[in-house]
Amino acid sequence: MRVVSNTSPVSNLAIVNRLGLLKARYEQIAIPPAVHDELQLLSHPEGRERLAQALREGWIVVEPVPFPEQAALYLEVLDSGEAAALALALQTGAEVLLMDERKGRGLAQQFGQRVSGILGMLVWGKEHGHVESLTAEMVRLISEARFFIHPALQAYMRAAVGEE
User: Range(s) for CATH 3.40.50.1010 in the chain?
Assistant: First the structure.
């Protein structure tokens, strides 16, 4: 399965030490150079090291966007990493684009691209025995990674996995 990621899913999973969920589910993740550049700026030392290890192991790979001019078209509504990730996913026929940002997800879906994000990965982890408590993982995302999850979405996600 071909999977491309934007910065947020891999950086936030690295911060909370759940990057291995991506490897367990997808085996390999492609990121464009713009996302790699953004990941190098991660201020969380342990998360940055976990990302570096994944790159060394080769299950996160940096791939150039074949036609970068397409990515430039998306810069009016997306940041450079999001635009490059969307372009790479569309141009290489990715089955899944990992992206958390609302605008990027919406645009990707307009192009027919299947999208998943960090919460989807945690639900998958819960369903497959990699995560004991989705609630605890959301708390860690909020406190350690400063990842915003609307309270209504938190309640919905907890109910979806039976943690009401």
Answer: 3-117
Please state which CATH number belongs to domain 3-117.
Answer: 3.40.50.1010
Q: Are 114 and 99 in contact (CB under 8 A)?
A: no
pLDDT of the chain, 164 residues: tens digit per residue:
999 999 999 999 999 999 999 999 999 999 999 999 999 999 999 999 999 999 999 999 999 999 888 888 888 889 999 999 999 999 999 999 999 999 999 999 999 999 999 999 999 999 999 999 999 999 999 999 999 999 999 999 999 999 97
Cβ atoms of 82 and 101 closer than 8 Å: yes
* Residue labelled with tokens 């570096």: 52
Report the C-alpha gap between 12 and 15 in whole angstroms. 5
Note the pTM of the prediction, 2 decimals: 0.94
**Can you tell me the distance from the alpha carbon of 133 to that of 99, in angstroms, rounded to the nearest whole number?**
22
Give the C-alpha separation, 141 to 44, whole Å.
13
Cβ neighbours of residue 112 under 8 Å, at least 6 residues apart? none
Q: How far apart are alpha carbons 46 and 92 in whole angstroms?
A: 31
